[in-house]
Amino acid sequence: MPITTVLSPFRAWKFLFQNPVTVRDPLTERPGAPRYRGFHQNDAEKCVGCGTCETICQNGAIDMIDVGLAPKDGDSGLRPRIDYGRCCWCALCVDVCMTGSLSMSNAYTWTDANADAFRFTPGVDKKPWDNDQLGYRRPEGHALHGKDRVEMAELEPEARIGTFDEIVAGYDVARARLEADRCVECGLCVATCPAHMAIPQYIKAVRDGDYERGLALLYETNPFSQVCGRVCTHKCETACAAGHEGDPIAIRWLKRHITDQVPHKDYVRIVGKPKKAAKGEAKTIAVVGAGPAGLTAAYDLARQGHKVVVYEVRKHPGGMPRYGIPEYRLPYDILDADIDVIRAMGVEIKCETRVGSDITMDELKAKNDAVILAIGLHLGRSTRIPGSDHADVRKAVDLLRQVTDEDPVDVPKSLVVIGGGNVAMDIARTMARLQMKAYGEVAVTVTALEDKAHFLADPDEIRECGEEGIDIVDARGPQEVVIDADGRVEGLRTWRVQSIFDAQGRFAPSYDESDERIHPGDMVIEAIGQAAGVDMLGEGLTEALEWNRGRIQVDADGRTSESWLWAIGDCVKGPDVVHAVADGHRAAKSILAAFEGKGDEA
Amino acid sequence: MQDLQTRLAQHTDLGEWTQQRADLAFVTVAREHLHGLLRHLRDHEGFTHLVLLTAVDWLEDGQFQLTYLMNNRAAARDIGVRVLIPREGADMDSIHDLWPTAATYQRELREMFGIDFPGSPRVDEEFILEGWRDMPPYRRDFDTLKYAQEEFAERPGRVSKDPETHMKQKLYPDGA
After folding, report:
1. Chain A residues with CB inside 8 Å of B152's CB?
2. Is A416 within 8 Å of chain B by CB?
3. Distance CA A416, CA A532 (A)
4. Closest Cα partner for A62 from A120, A145, A101?
5. Residues with Cβ < 8 Å from A548, sequence gap 6 or more?
6. CB–CB contact A190 B144 (8 Å)
7. What's the CATH code of the domain at B108?
8. What is the pLDDT of residue A277?
9. How far does A506 lie from chain B, in Å, by closest CA?
10. Domain region containing B89
11. Does the interface predicted TM-score (ipTM) exceed 0.85?
12. Chain B interface, best mutation among A64, A199, A554, by max B CB count within 10 A
């Protein structure tokens, strides 16, 4: 053995009086690296409980649990609980988080004798590292799901203004799949949809290319799927988890895509035949008004094997989707296709039949087991300003109806629309197309009470109006229809609006009278709202019914104070197709329950 | 690193060259050129240090990509040499004769991806997965979640709610 081997241990003694290079107390302070993946942090306010973290977790370490938060639009109220016995700290949950609420602190040291302590809900169960600034955050620009919506092809303004051709082209298969691929199937949207359509499931059908399954899913909850695929107000998209850090999924366009992909001749086969009611069980129901609310109720009841007759005063069924929504947004053949499916379930629709004169409510009551009133809002309201009784001051709903029925319309060279909602946009754009056809140029001014920041119409409508050469003037209050010496309409006199509501929130516009303008036009169109035409009820029934601020009083299912009568749709609620569909379902369910003796005797 | 590319191209058939940064490049070569190129880089270009050896599973293309990352300490630059091999029955020539440490990487790749390196020391011994019976877990067709659910017991008392169902129960229990 060499002598150095024996001596070398003693050489270490020379370090005894040197400064140590090691950390004095490594057990107390051991900070993780700045981007260390330690215990999770979750901003419980920002989190929407979509459960995408749970879905992506490859260790099954995350549970979505009820922490006592009430669910609301776009937020399930659930929050992720993490089992650190399973978590491998891979941070996929942070990378996929739809809102960016989930992150990881760099805290990683923690001891506890109770193993269950290592299962907790970050952001809800308070922890010392909740407000730590260091740790793993999803890097800027890093995303696991597509943030941008797949673009939708549309007719260019120059190509569409002279025609009533449909503007939106619809997705092709490749684009629809790309868009469907962005959906994480969290299902937050379903509660927000008034009809509670099976949205994640039908989007999955698009992804799988299984359009028959998709169509069957659509018609389980919405017999106006083709219509809603085009003109739905798509509140679902405001609840979409993808909307927090990108564009929400184009749910409406994907619904339309399914209906576009299936040939119309196959619809009835896929939707399935109605049930046959047992002998003597089939009831008869009358529906007044062939709009989405009435026809949905009719569809549901007919599918259960009951006999339904729908009475419609106009030439064609469809209600507001036909008579209110212009063809460039909703082609008539699309509406007809949806109604054909409803007819195929055995629903009989009697058009040009006016309840109240051709047949009375009393007769309907006597002949049927239940009656549904779904008469919509077809009477245009008037501003009642001076000059508004002139023959060239028209109501938007009346003009839209004339255009649909192809009744002749006197198209003025220039006109002014009063109103800032979607109906105002519909009539402005309809008249602009007629002007383009007749004169080759557009001269339409829209005056709205609201300023641009508080406009009632959809942003798309406002943008498209601008593209089509329509002049929208905001914050203008109509004062008088100006009539010249020869008795012709010359224009509309307006004042600038200072505020629309008073301190109590009541409608009481105030104006700056010094800011006066005359908007020139040979015609003035009022588009400021509609009312239900309830004269058809007859005096006795009007007296018997309970009313609430001019509307028929109904319960949550649409049943009126008269046990045989339900009232649904715009005439009692509003404001759009899919709400009407939901109303129709509720009424049908309530009527079926009444037939089975679950509700009050009908 | 243009100069290096030019010099290497004189005696090796180089595939795609990717200049990732000023001091980092990747080059793809055929498997038969790998050993010679690595030796040349080590002995004549100063890339004496094997930083790592790793693999990527290009499942859809039916290929594994091996990346040999090497460092030239004096010049402070790195080169990654890539080789694509068929996924089916994957094997590759060992480089443990160039760097003994490579044997450890090769043993790891054998375990995690199922890529064989015949002749590499202890290549068939277990590395970190003790008693593993499933397919190599870094293969992309390995279902990690399914494995975790089957293999690891749940702590009792776990419940999870589906957001859509939970919202229905709370907001519209009768479906309307």
Report:
1. 59-60, 86
2. no
3. 25
4. A120
5. none
6. no
7. 3.30.460.80
8. 83
9. 31
10. 2-128
11. yes
12. A64
In sequence order, the 6+-apart residues with CB closer than 8 A to the CB of A241 are: A48, A50, A52, A74, A98, A99, A184, A186, A188
Average pLDDT over residues A515-522: 96
- For residue B148, give the nearest of A60, A78, A200 by CB distance: A60
Residue A601 has a pLDDT of 46
Between CA B174 and CA B169 the distance in angstroms is 8
φ, ψ dihedrals at A260, nearest 5°:
-70, -30
Does B167 reach chain A within 8 Å, measured CB to CB?
Answer: yes
Is B74 within 8 Å of chain A by CB?
Answer: no
Average of per-residue pLDDT across A383-407:
94
pLDDT average, residue stretch A239-254: 96
Please state the φ and ψ torsions of residue A171, each to the nearest 5 degrees.
-75, 145
Q: Model confidence over A163-190: pLDDT tens digits?
A: 899 999 999 999 999 999 999 999 999 9
- B148 contacts chain A (CB < 8 A): yes
Q: Does A191 touch chain B (CB under 8 A)?
A: yes
CA A530 to chain centre: 21
Answer positive or negative: Cα dihedral of A523, A524, A527, A529. Answer: negative
Tell me the pTM.
Answer: 0.86
Helix extents (H) in A161-285: 173-181, 188-192, 199-208, 211-221, 225-231, 236-239, 251-261, 267-271
Across A365-475, the runs of DSSP E, i.e. the strands, are: 370-373, 379-380, 393-395, 415-418, 444-447, 471-473
Question: For chain A, which domains are there?
Answer: 40-136 (3.30.70.3270), 157-271 (1.10.1060.10), 284-373+534-595 (3.50.50.60), 379-530 (3.50.50.60)
User: Which amino acid makes up residue B164?
Assistant: E
Report residue B66 as tokens. 């091996």
